[in-house]
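README: folding subset

This subset contains proteins for which both the sequence and a predicted structure token string are available. Records are stored as plain text. Below is the entry for Coproporphyrin III ferrochelatase (311 residues), shown exactly as it appears on disk.
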Amino acid sequence: MSDRKIGVLVMSYGTPESMDGIAEYYTHIRRGNPPSPEMLAELTARYEAIVGGVFPLRANTDRQVQALQETLDAAAPGRYVCYQGLKHARPFIEDGVEAMAADGIRKAVGIVLAPHYSVMSVGGYIKRAQEKAEALGLEAEFVKSYHLHPKLIEALRVRLVSGLEKLAAAGEGKTKVLFSAHSLPEKIREMNDPYERQLLETATAAAEAAGVSDWDFTWQSAGRTREPWLGPDILETLRDVSEQGYRKVLSAPIGFVSDHLEVLYDIDIEAKAAARELGMTLERIEMLNTDPLYMEALAESVTEADRWRGE
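--- output ---
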């Protein structure tokens, strides 16, 4: 492969390839400590609830990588080659970098399938990729965030408008839009981490673009550790919204870009059940997945980070 090719390392959290891989996956998340039988049973039950023993979730990320490759090919034919690197499943981030090196790639751009930067999330992906790249002699540049890319905001605007139209057809009652993202430990605030600020900037821009004024931001999917995590959690927020007289809620989990456990279970099953108990209707915006606008936002972020463009 020509050394003029630019490798694109597309990084994401990762998910098991099948139900049989859940224990290994969970053990990796726990830094090599196997989960208790009770913890494993609970996580397995969540996957069974959303996939019923069939496991399409891994294919979502594969499709995103392929769609980004096609988008880059259309913009700059022959210049970029995409590789996948996952945090907690194979191919791991380091595997992706090794594959680049094996193919003769000398220069690369890394991007994470998450628009918002935190040293505890995207920063960790970049650190692992950078260390492996340096060890193998690859020159790498990284996209840290793209949370206000105009095409990302437009893709979210379209989804907000569509979701609100569905709720409008569901009957009368006040509607609240709830933006959400994966919670992180509260200590990121002491670190002046940009994660929370970037999420609020995305929510504000998307709401303004869609003409939404009645919205709030909440958190979801917090880890089970002794330290405090960012809140309030969406289940708590739903109770508050119900007490305020709202009958309809549009969930907009803008911290995520594809259909996976935190969306298909935490929102579609858990949050919807909580809303029903409170006498409310909850709809969720469609996830970005391989939306062309999202793919273009990713591709343009990659090309902007490509210092060697035009060589």
